[in-house]
């Protein structure tokens, strides 16, 4: 017996809900705001038991409606004029919904392994690989995926090494470190896609509102989610550029993301450079304030990745291709700002992020409270560009060398190209009709300083604060 679906989840055909506006962008009054929060809580509870295929179909219909009527006022006028049933029929007559919803079911080659376990940490960085589950993108590729919520990054690493997970959400530096045998036994890993760019922040306890200058942070205890993380390397970079030695002037502690807010509340740490939704959750709980978005340190920086072992790729080429297509499809949907509220709705429930939807939506839309009394609008606060640029890996390796995680000569180009599957990413993006960029190595500007991947050692040696000699 199919599960009963709540037809109000996306409000595609609700004329009164098709684009409300108010002082905060959504509501006309505080009463309306409170009513909406309760409704969202009810919707989340219902969404946990939804049928994935129906939810996916709802998203297709929602996307078509938005494409036909980009303006909220147009959608409202159309729905009021013709009614729900006529609207459905009219759209179905112009767009073969069944065909659209079935297109992704075409498969190239027999799937070697249909039942897969994929590990993830409950953060917004993982939005593409998470949303691919409730929206049915894995199923449409012939895959039966079990998403395994995992407590911390060390466990993610160990479960991949022990082959308890077939593929995984990673911090971008992790597959590089694992392949090199840094911090663990060497196991060759591959990065299929970057899961997200930007989307992190430095959050401080509210008691430090008078310490906005990092030069005042000597003696601070600051948390990052893992040693081999962009969070660690970006925090170190930011501190050093402000004259603070990250190994001598402050303490940097590894703390699992779900525990960051609790540790901030307890006074165990003064702040953290961590993933969302926990920066925004600290603001929501009135415990912390957002000091700076990592977008302001390096706009377009990679954060998390989606990957698997080299053995898995070789043994399951068709399964690998199906996974690639599912996650790229999700990333393309997540990239569209028009879909961000829908994505927040899909990934917020207990089975995934287990966070208030309003917190997740603030992160994904970029309209957020900063904890200092301001409401900011930064549309690029988080993005989901999937391209695994080889130059991103070279920058990560340069920081591993800068801070003494690796010693001696580093084969930057060789390691980057052995771990990142850029060619495959471009191939499957082209198959899916997605824009495919040229090249493999890009220059970046990080806090005003240029990084040229062809001159990585010179870049490392140019810093005054470093552990290399």
From TrEMBL:
Protein location: Endomembrane system
Keywords on record: Cell inner membrane, Cell membrane, Membrane, Transport
Matches recorded under InterPro entries: NrtA/CpmA_ABC-bd_dom
Domain of life: Bacteria
PANTHER family: ALIPHATIC SULFONATES-BINDING PROTEIN-RELATED (PTHR30024), BLL4572 PROTEIN (PTHR30024:SF43)
Protein name: CmpA/NrtA family ABC transporter substrate-binding protein
Gene source species: Herbaspirillum rhizosphaerae
């Amino acid at each position: 017996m199919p599960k009963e679906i709540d037809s109000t989840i996306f409000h595609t055909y609700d004329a009164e809900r098709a684009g409300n506006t108010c002082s905060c962008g959504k509501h006309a009054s505080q009463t309306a705001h409170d009513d909406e929060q309760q409704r969202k809580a009810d919707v989340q509870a219902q969404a946990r038991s939804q049928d994935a295929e129906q939810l996916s179909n709802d998203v297709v219909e929602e996307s078509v409606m938005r494409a036909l009527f980009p303006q909220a006022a147009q959608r409202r006028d159309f729905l009021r004029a013709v009614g729900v049933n006529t609207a459905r029929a009219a759209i179905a007559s112009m767009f073969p919904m069944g065909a659209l919803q079935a297109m992704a079911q075409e498969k190239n080659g027999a799937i070697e392994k249909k039942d897969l376990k994929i590990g993830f940490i409950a953060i917004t960085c993982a939005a593409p690989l998470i949303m691919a589950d409730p929206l049915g993108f894995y199923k449409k590729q012939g895959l039966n995926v079990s998403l395994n919520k995992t407590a911390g990054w060390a466990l993610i690493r160990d479960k991949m090494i022990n082959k308890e997970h077939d593929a995984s959400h990673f911090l971008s530096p992790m597959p590089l470190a694992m392949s090199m045998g840094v911090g663990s036994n060497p196991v060759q890993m591959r990065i299929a896609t970057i899961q997200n760019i930007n989307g992190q922040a430095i959050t401080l306890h509210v008691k430090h509102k008078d310490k906005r200058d990092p030069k005042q942070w000597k003696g601070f205890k600051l948390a990052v989610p893992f040693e081999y993380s962009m969070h660690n390397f970006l925090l170190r970079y930011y501190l050093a550029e402000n004259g603070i030695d990250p190994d001598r002037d402050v303490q940097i502690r590894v703390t699992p993301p779900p525990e960051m807010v609790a540790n901030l509340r307890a006074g165990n740490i003064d702040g953290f450079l961590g993933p969302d939704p926990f920066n925004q959750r600290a603001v929501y709980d009135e415990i912390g304030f957002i000091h700076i978005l990592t977008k302001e340190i390096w706009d377009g920086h990679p954060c998390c990745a989606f990957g698997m072992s080299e053995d898995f790729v070789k043994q399951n080429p068709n399964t690998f291709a199906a996974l690639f297509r599912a996650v790229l499809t999700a990333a393309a949907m997540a990239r569209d700002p028009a879909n961000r509220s829908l994505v927040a709705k899909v990934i917020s429930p207990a089975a995934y992020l287990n966070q208030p939807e309003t917190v997740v939506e603030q992160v994904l839309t970029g309209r957020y409270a900063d904890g200092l009394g301001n409401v900011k609008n930064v549309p690029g606060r988080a993005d989901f560009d999937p391209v695994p640029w080889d130059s991103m890996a070279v920058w990560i390796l340069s920081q591993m060398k800068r801070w003494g995680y690796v010693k001696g000569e580093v084969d930057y180009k060789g390691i980057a190209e052995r771990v990142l599957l850029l060619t495959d990413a471009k191939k499957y993006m082209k198959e899916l009709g997605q824009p495919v960029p040229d090249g493999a190595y890009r220059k970046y500007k990080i806090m005003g300083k240029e990084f040229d991947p062809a001159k990585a050692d010179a870049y490392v040696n140019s810093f005054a604060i470093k552990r290399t000699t």
